[in-house]
Design goal:
- Two copies of one chain form a homodimer.
- In chain A, strands 7, 8, 9, 10, 11, 12, 13 and 14 form an eight-stranded mixed sheet that branches.
- Chain A contains ten helices and 14 strands.
- Chain A has 329 residues and is of the alpha+beta class.
- In chain A, helix 2 (62-79) packs parallel to helix 6 (200-208).
- Strand 2 (32-34) of chain A pairs antiparallel with strand 3 of chain B.
């Protein structure tokens, strides 16, 4: 595919190494050299995307593989209220890969990165006999004291979520069983799965206005990620099941409603933000921010359990049943 | 091995998440939050270590796998003259791995990191059916304008190298064909291979005293990495073959001398520093720095070719023949 490592580095450099603010030295030296604003903290995160685990060569186009790998890390920075700035991309590429496929993966990564002002400044690449793997490290910055963490939720805080939940999981289901009715909604679900949108503007809004007491991005499903937020904050939570924005009734059949409900609770990879807001600040949360709806879906409680309450006030225990590589695969 | 991802994160956190200078938030949130000194640039690098490519379960003990993975990235920061500070570790772990093995890998990583003041502040982990892979991202810092790059070598500059070359490749050879005479030298070679020492103190010395015009770390072999430095600087180089510090004659047989010479030219993973020094500064380079010998082995020339000159003044072309994943595997 590529003759030498030097040739590959030149290939990537030609695509990614655009001079940019803060980049002193990009791809091509022993390390990259960058600069963040004085007084800002540095936000560092990394996420693995593995063929057969996080993506499939059959279901995901190359551009989507790159987009999703980059989106996972950018979403982590969004959940900290930070501005994503730089990326390092490590690729272990299966020998079977074509240059067109690798090109597509990079195109997907670079398109999303470019839209969020993120520069790919380095990485490491190896061709080998195993499955393809992408590890994207993103470095961002956030004003000191303004980072949004998981651990600040307090009893009485309202729980909010952006967007609609379960859409990505539904899109994945549609990709797995094609040939179904193809309409505006199914297209939206598939698009949500293949090209998720990190909620950076919302994260920045919550950070700048100091509105959220705790934030996490929904990568592994509401039930799992709410559990993580609650554990980090040493609290419990009660969700109002009928307030959770899932697939709308007009779009799907009654039988699918309960399935849609399950996807909303446990489906992963929505990359929406889940955040808590003190009662005092709740009035300052708009119904939507830059076109993304925000819904109050529950409240934080002192008692360390997760409960799901229905319209009639009946409550049941909510067990984490979202995506967990350690359990489900 | 581990029941859930949350359990694994707790396990790593217990080992790695020690409060440290500059770490605002370590493992356990959406991203890590760190701080570098005002006025310093940020050095970012990442290196993949793949089972069957960069390490072998048969030849490398678990501690060595972790040590080498961490050493590769720390060495990149050393080659920039930076202080390594923080690490993110991504692990794709083969399902066949035992907890003891994973423990050993982490122990090796954390021991080396600890010795260099590097804190592991995050990462991503997946268990899957493929081979084990470790991606270590290291963030460091360096005073503005003091980073050591590859591109500053000028015609007339002297070429220096730290340590002895080819030792790691020889150690690997010994590990592959055991049962040979076991003495102080073979032990040193094996140790150099299993537990390489990043040259951070030397990198800092060259940066602080502004002694080097260009620096690269020798990860892929002298012939390959000198080629990279020369290309980045738009120059050529002439090496004096008899000045290259390789295996000493007392230690090996005459037949092994020519083999040792080849290892010194093309053997990878020595992680010594190769650097160039202007004629004006050459007198300020000591014979050794903190116990590590420094040798002048050649000079930079305008003509863009790499030459090897022997004791009798006979010169031949030096072709890059070091480690390159793209060519040799």
């Amino acid at each position: 595919v590529f003759g030498t490592e030097n040739e590959f580095v030149r290939w990537v450099r030609a695509r990614a190494n655009i001079p940019a603010r803060g980049v002193r030295l990009g791809i091509g030296d022993d390390a990259a050299l960058v600069r963040v604003a004085a007084g800002n903290d540095l936000v560092l995160t990394t996420d693995l995307s593995i063929e057969g685990v996080h993506f499939s060569l059959v279901l995901h186009p190359a551009r989507s593989v790159g987009h999703r790998a980059m989106a996972r890390s950018i979403s982590d920075v969004a959940a900290m209220g930070g501005i994503p700035r730089f990326a390092l991309v490590s690729l272990a590429i299966s020998r079977g890969s074509t240059r067109a496929w690798i090109n597509g993966v990079y195109a997907g990564m670079l398109a999303l990165a470019g839209r969020f002002g993120v520069r790919v400044i380095g990485g490491d690449t190896t061709f080998y006999s195993g499955v393809t793997m992408v590890d994207v490290m993103v470095a961002g910055e956030v004003e000191r004291g303004r980072a949004l963490v998981r651990s600040g939720a307090r009893p009485g805080d309202r729980i909010y979520v952006s967007g609609r939940l379960g859409l990505s999981a539904q899109g994945l289901g549609l990709l797995k069983s094609p040939g179904r009715h193809w309409d505006r909604h199914t297209r939206a679900a598939i698009d949500a799965h293949l090209y998720p949108e990190p909620r950076c503007p919302l994260g920045r809004f919550l950070s700048k206005k100091r509105l959220a007491s705790a934030v996490i991005d929904l990568s592994d499903g509401l039930s799992t990620d709410l559990g993580r937020l609650a554990e980090a904050s040493h609290v419990g939570a009660r969700l109002w099941s009928h307030r959770i924005p899932s697939l709308s009734v007009e779009e799907i059949t009654q039988r699918a409603v309960s399935k849609g409900h399950n996807l909303a609770l446990h489906g992963g990879e929505d990359y929406e933000l889940l955040f808590t807001v003190s009662p005092r600040n709740a009035a300052r949360i708009p119904a939507q921010y830059r076109g993304v709806p925000l819904h109050a879906i529950g409240e934080i409680r002192r008692s360390k359990e997760l409960l799901l309450v229905d319209e009639r006030g009946k409550s049941r225990s909510l067990k984490p049943a979202g995506y967990d590589h350690f359990r489900t695969r």
